[in-house]
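Appendix B. Chain record.
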Amino acid sequence: MTEEKVVKPYNKEQTSKKEEVAEMFNNISKRYDFLNHFLSLGIDKIWRKKAIRKLKAVAPERILDIATGTGDFAIAALKLKPKEVVGVDISSGMLDVGKEKMKKKGVDHIVTMQLGDSEDLPFDDNYFDALTVGFGVRNYEHLEVGLADMLRVLRPEGMAVILEFSKPKRFPVKQFFGFYSKYLIPFFGKTISKDSRAYTYLPESVAAFPEGQDFTDIMTKVGYKNVEAKLVSGGIATIYSGIK
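C-alpha cells predicted for this chain:
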C-alpha cells in the first residue's frame, strides 16, 4: 500500500492540515462555485449524477454529505427523494454560501448545513442510510479515522459513495489533465480566487492521494464491504462505493 503523504494548502509549521483546509475554503468560499464549474468545464455535475445513481439500490431516506462545501452533492442527492439530507463541512465560509443556496432553491426544509469534522461526526451510530463525499477525502487529515467515523454513522447495509479526483493513466487524457492541472488550474484559480495557494494545492493533493486499489484497500481495511471503484472521464475522477 502506498504510504500516505501529507500535503497542506499553506505548509505552515504551526497549523494542522485540517486547520489549513478550513482556512483555504473560507478564503475562496465566495468564488468557489463559479471556479468549480468553470475549471471542471461543468463535467463535475455529470460525475455527481452518476455517483448519486449508485445510491438508488439502498433507497436512502437519510443522507449525509460530508465535506459538503456549498452543498452541490447534497442538492444532487435530492433526486433520490430523501426525507432528510445533512451537509457537514469544517469551513464556516462554505457553509454560509451553501445555506443561502438552499434557501434560494427552496430546499432548506430538507437540506440542512452544519459545521462538523469528518473524524468526529456529531451523529448517532447507524443513523444514515447513505453517505456521500465529493472531492473531500483527500483533504482529510487522518484518512482512515475519517472513513471509520463515516462507517460508524452509516446503518447496516447502508452505502457510502465517494467521488474523488484521480490520475489518468492513458494517452491523451493523461497528458491533457497533467498540463491542465499543473498550469491552467493554478493560473485561473489564483487569478479569480485571489488565493495563490488554493488551486496549486489541488493538483498537489490529487498527486499525493492513495487512489484506485490503494484507496479501495483502505476502505476494506476500515470495514467497508463490496468495495468498488469506477473510473469516469478517462480516469480524471473515480467513483468509489462500499456497503456497511
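Further analysis of this model is presented in Appendix C.
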